[in-house]
Amino acid sequence: MSDISYLTVYNAHGGSFLKIPKPIRFPTLPDFKNYLSQSFSIDNVDDLFLLSSFGIKINYNLINDISEVFVYDKRLFISDIDRKLLDSYILHSVKDDISPPQQLPLADTRKAYSSDISNRIKLYQAWAREILQISNALESRCSLLIQQINTIFKSLTALFQFATSFTTEVENNFNHHYNYINLISFKTLHKSWTESYKNLQHLHVVKIKDKKFKLVDFLDYESLGRAAAFVAKQLPLITGKFGELNNTAKTMKQDRARVDELIEKARKESIERFKDTNLNEMMETVKSKAQSVAADFSNVQGVLLEQVFNQHKSRTSIELKNAADDLYRYYLSLKAFREQLIRDGPKIYSIIANLQMKTVNLKTEIKSLMEDEIAEKSNTINHQTIQDVKKCEDMLSLTIDMPLLFGFALIEKRRQFEWYDFYSKGVVHNFSEQVTSIGEHERAFREMWNKKVGSFLNYIKDDNFVGVLPNVDITLVGNRDKTQNFLLLQNVEIDRNDIVDYISLLEKSHVSTNFHELLRKNFQDMKQSTNNMKRITKLISSLGSVSELQTDKMGNQTGKESSENFDLDLNVVNGLKSRIKKLESLLHQQQYKNITNWPVFRNGNYSDNRVSMILDSKEPLSAPIVKSDPTKLLQKRTPSKESVSSNQSQFLDSSVVDKHLDNIKLRRANTELTAENEHLLREQGAKDETILQLRQEMEKLKASHAKEVESLEGKLAQHEEEFRLYKLEGKLDSKEFENLEKKLENKDQTITQLKNRISTLEQERTNHEQEMASLSETITILRSELNDANRMKNDLLSNMSSKESEFAQERTTNKNELTRIKSKLDEVNEDYENLMELTQVKQQKHDQIANELNTVVDTLMNKLKLTSESFFETFIEICCILESMGLLLIKEDGIFKIKRVKGLKSKKSTANLEDDVSFVSVAATPTSKVIEDIETSMKWTEEISSSPYLPPDSSSDDNEIANVEKYNEESEKLISRFNNIFGGEKPQFDLFIKLISFKDNIQLADENSSSTGFFLNAISKRFKDVEGFAKRQTKENKLKDQEIRKLASRNKHKISINSFQENDLLLFLPTRDDNVMGNHNESIQPWAAFNVGAPHYFLDTSNLNLNGKEWIIGRVQSIKENKVSPEQIKSLEHNRFQLSLGVTWYMVQVIEDK
């Protein structure tokens, strides 16, 4: 029988739990929640929040694999919780119906008589049993409280784990992005890129073949400047935004630490409060003391009984009472601590709810900043801005990394060239050759098989046994010459020497030391890649040797595997064939050995006689058998009687004697053949032994030959590998030789070009000599002209002296004019300064007016915000008033209505009146969904800051233009804010006023009323309904009062038989008391009330005359309750009717009804 497993569901706030057997029968999660809401008295299913162990949200598909579920009430996660709800969780699971242990009823210190000791012991033992019973109840209650406290701690831990896992993921994601932004900010180059650019300018020119590369030419200075400006503008905004988010993340960590601190504080408090208390020890003390009370008086009598009783009274009873008091105090302490946990829980829940809200906001901000699809284009900082900053930083990093990147490009182009060379020539060409050789081997085998076997089969029917072999065509697709790549290198062929020269150039230059090390490592990786291609080429070139096996002229394989298969199969067949041949020869010899002793027939034909002796009579006669075929004798068997009789009928000349002689001869021949057969079998056994020995020797020889063959094949494979390597090296040498030939041809071409150039230069030299001769002639002509020019110069100098005097006069006049213009310029400057002072004063007045206007606008907007908020608060109060009256504001199909809703009644109302009218408590937050619409229409208030307007700082050190721009910016912000709220086709403020005034899209509750106010109409209608209901109730109450009076007057003269009260009419009868010892005093004669199920009601006869009466009817004046105690049991004053101990009786005073 399998054990039943349960799912335990805990109430996280009160600690109660319930168990549900598995498998869970609820089909969906809402059904499961509905059951839990009914079990834990939570009205709304949406208020439930479920977690499993370790703070994991419930996956209902795996509900049968979960052992524990914690149920949380979302109503306790808000800041302003309902105290009644919290008190309901405190009073939900523990009933406060256990009173403290009573004091021992042994207060009488007078000397007790022996007859009274037994009663006292009985009272003492009854008290001990009661203490034990209360202690057991306290133990169960304490265990339940401990379990509930542990459940609350477990639920807090699970909730904290849920919040931690929820927030840690978002924090880790944010830290990743935050570190990324900090790294960009730390390594930004927008300030220092110019120095790197200058260092790149000083770098030597890189020469590769006939091309020259200056690395700085690859960069655009203007683009770098724009990138640096963009980074300088956007990067501080990005870091500032992420700084704000980092502050939010820090507050989240602080909140999480605060929650952990509160939980840990509660744990430490529980440890400190209950660490010295052991429930089991206290219960053991109570049980042992109660057990001693029950056992110590069992076998004691007389004086010892009183001694034991006094001992218990002085010590044991006190210890038992103290232990029970300790247990009760422990119960109260657990109860108080549980109540404290429940009251402190909403504080933790509120922090976790706020933490979750902050986490969601942080996650939304991260998505808006780091994901392109969610980013809003209107935000200044978005995903695209961050990516643009990253691109600009990458562009600026080229000023440092350009030498390294250029080296990487050189190495990669060379690696691709070598890979392509090996792939096209080594891999593709060799693979094509190897596949072709495999096909040739197959063709040779088929042709040899056709010669050996197919030629014979062609005699039957002409056929083609060679067939057509598949043709493999391997072509190289995607020629690298057709695709243009590495445009940076301008189609220059890169050699390894070029790479080495470039690395050495970087080592000599003033660049980072890591660059040439990285390039050398990358260069080694390129060599390794080429070596890998070499190994692949060697492997492909050896494919043909795998299928190539040496064959003989007849096409028989002579390899190792074929020889082994032949030795195993063919040798066995050959041995069996030789044995069969030997046995056949021996058999023929034995048959021909006694040929002279064969039977001779006297009469008839010999051939006929042979047929009659050898062939069966049932078979048809065949042709005569030749005498020289003695093998037919081996097929004979002894003739049967039927054959002999048939032979007698066919051959009449034969006799019985001849047949007898023939039989004797046949028997003799049979015995001889048997002996010979045994001899042959012995010879065969001996030969088998020799064959077995020969086989063992052959196996040994085969093993030795196999080892020799393996060694020879290894040497052969080694030689073949060396041959392939030599062949591959020959191919590589041929490639190098071809390259050298190409270089030599290029050099020859350059030599021829140089020779042609020399011839042209010689021609040019002759031409230059001719030109020199002509130039010498021109020089002589120019010298003559120079002399003429000197003469002209002297004439010009004389003219210039005369002109200088004229220029001096003009200079003096120009200086005077210049001084006059300067004086006018000074006057204009003074006028300009005066004008600027006037404009500055006017600008200050304008700025002051603009500042005051900005202040007025901001103040008005703040006043409007406060007015709108007061409207909203008034609206909330109206909604609360409506809900307190049982009315609810709703919106149906865009129309606002006020309806009577029964679900708004207070749960504590006990009235059961008509139309479900009950007293309703005013809720702190109304439940109307229209409030959400009003709140959404009030979002414009978020744009208005509650802080007072502060004008921009316009210090005297700042520029006036900057101040003007500041005032303009502030004015533009206020104008844009004003337009957003009060401008446009549908202003937000107008929509809010229109919505909260409830003038349009409304349906009046009482359309017949004269009041058109939306709320006033509904309230007046509600008051009318309540007033009408009150009138009906008053009328009904009057009718019921009249009925009650009638019933009271009717029941006034009826005798009561139970549940006696004042003014009831009772019948008393005299009763007999057997316990009264001969006392016939009528004053103590018991008169009992006639009753049904209400005994011990006795008549007070002190004021009544009962002489000669057998019954009396009286109206009750008072009823006094009495109880027979041990002290009063024998007192006639207190127990006048001699009732038993503990009986409750009543003394009734009446007025006789006549």
Automatic annotation (TrEMBL):
Cellular component terms (Gene Ontology): Atg1/ULK1 kinase complex; phagophore assembly site membrane
GO molecular function (one): molecular adaptor activity
Domain Autophagy protein ATG17-like: 123-457
Highest taxon of the lineage: Eukaryota
Protein name (record): Autophagy-related protein 11
Organism: Candida orthopsilosis (strain 90-125)
Location of region: Disordered: 626-649
Record bears the keyword Transport: yes
GO biological process, one term: autophagosome assembly
